[in-house]
């Protein structure tokens, strides 16, 4: 996932009309959340937040959990294919609460990154799986919840990798900016010791930290530049690639302008003594230490 990439309430019928309302698992969304949706003047929920279906055989998914989640909720095509600019922008505004301009920037960046990794590709649309073929650009080492491509090229959620990240977050029920900055850095350092080809180039640092900033901006509440994410929401999202609506989450509005400030704060608050960049030689040295 890249950031930018690397995630409005429309007039709509009652959510009860949707056949997959409540999720594929059969768990129903709380009546409180349904009531929030029905209050069209204040709710940021959309009917598709209540529509969830795990990917089916042949559906396109990739290394970005936010893109996968938007497909699982049908904000973008459920098959994850032929995603074009205007529908993508609408999906990000409705599903993630992003501002129009920030969503447009993410789309243009994603398309450019895919073209960089695939020079012969000349397209105005993309499939989610194409993000997988961008190692070091969009897909990268040190993922929060996926093994490095050196060990597993599938981009599948990996419980052990995610558990390692969580171990650095401690027991707090809330995840704040300093806590995530600390956990992300130490998690990457831990992963670098196992992967002799582990690499994070200087140009990738704001990209990778930007992913974390996006998580804070989308799922966090409170101060816009120092939000706190409910840990239960955070874990639910990563484990299921489903919006945690049933746990009480609702989208923010106009997310985007604050992301740059969050990125800078996370870089500044990363733990001293833990590198932000890595080379294969440094990874090999860490493994030998």
Secondary structure layout plus pairing:
Elements: H1 31-38, H2 65-72, H3 85-96, H4 100-117, H5 159-169, E1 174-175, H6 177-194, H7 205-219, E2 220-221, E3 228-230, H8 231-240, H9 259-268, H10 280-288
Antiparallel strand pairs: 1-3, 2-3
Helix pairs in contact: 3-4, 5-6, 6-7, 6-9, 7-9
Description:
Keywords: Heme, Iron, Metal-binding, Oxidoreductase, Peroxidase. Pfam families: Peroxidase_2. Belongs to the chloroperoxidase family. It comes from Marssonina brunnea f. sp. multigermtubi (strain MB_m1) (Marssonina leaf spot fungus). InterPro entries: Chloroperoxidase (IPR000028), Chloroperoxidase-like_sf (IPR036851). Helix 3 (85-96) crosses helix 4 and helix 7 (205-219) packs across helix 9. The protein has a three-stranded antiparallel sheet. The radius of gyration is 18 Å and the shape is globular. It has one domain: Chloroperoxidase-like (Chloroperoxidase), CATH 1.10.489.10. It is 41% helix and 2% strand. With 289 residues, it is mainly alpha-helical. It contains ten helices and three strands, in the order H-H-H-H-H-E-H-H-E-E-H-H-H. The chain has helices at residues 31-38, 65-72, 85-96, 100-117, 159-169, 177-194, 205-219, 231-240, 259-268, 280-288, and strands at residues 174-175, 220-221, 228-230.
């Amino acid at each position: 996932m890249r950031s930018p990439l690397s995630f409005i309430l429309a007039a709509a019928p009652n959510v009860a009309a949707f056949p997959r309302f409540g999720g594929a698992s059969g768990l129903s969304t709380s009546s409180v959340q349904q009531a929030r949706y029905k209050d069209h003047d204040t709710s940021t929920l959309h009917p598709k937040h209540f529509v969830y279906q795990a990917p089916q055989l042949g559906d396109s998914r990739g290394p970005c959990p936010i893109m996968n989640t938007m497909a699982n909720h049908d904000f973008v095509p459920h098959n994850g294919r032929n995603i074009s600019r205007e529908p993508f922008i609408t999906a990000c505004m409705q599903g993630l609460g992003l501002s129009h301009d920030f969503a447009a920037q993410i789309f243009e960046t994603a398309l450019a990154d895919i073209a960089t990794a695939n020079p012969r590709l000349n397209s105005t649309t993309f499939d989610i799986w194409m993000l997988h073929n961008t190692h070091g650009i969009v897909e990268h080492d040190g993922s929060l919840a996926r093994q490095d491509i050196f060990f597993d090229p599938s981009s599948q959620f990996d419980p052990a990798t995610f558990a390692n990240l969580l171990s650095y977050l401690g027991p707090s029920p809330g995840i704040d900016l300093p806590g995530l900055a600390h956990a992300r850095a130490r998690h990457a350092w831990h992963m670098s010791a196992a992967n002799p080809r582990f690499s994070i180039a200087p140009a990738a640092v704001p990209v990778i930290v930007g992913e974390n900033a996006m998580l804070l901006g989308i799922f966090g509440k409170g101060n816009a530049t120092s939000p706190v994410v409910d840990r239960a929401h955070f874990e639910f999202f990563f484990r299921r690639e489903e919006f945690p609506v049933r746990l009480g989450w609702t989208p923010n509005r106009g997310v985007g302008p604050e992301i740059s400030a969050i990125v800078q704060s996370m870089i500044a608050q990363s733990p001293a003594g833990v590198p932000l960049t890595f080379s294969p030689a440094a990874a090999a040295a860490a493994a030998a230490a």
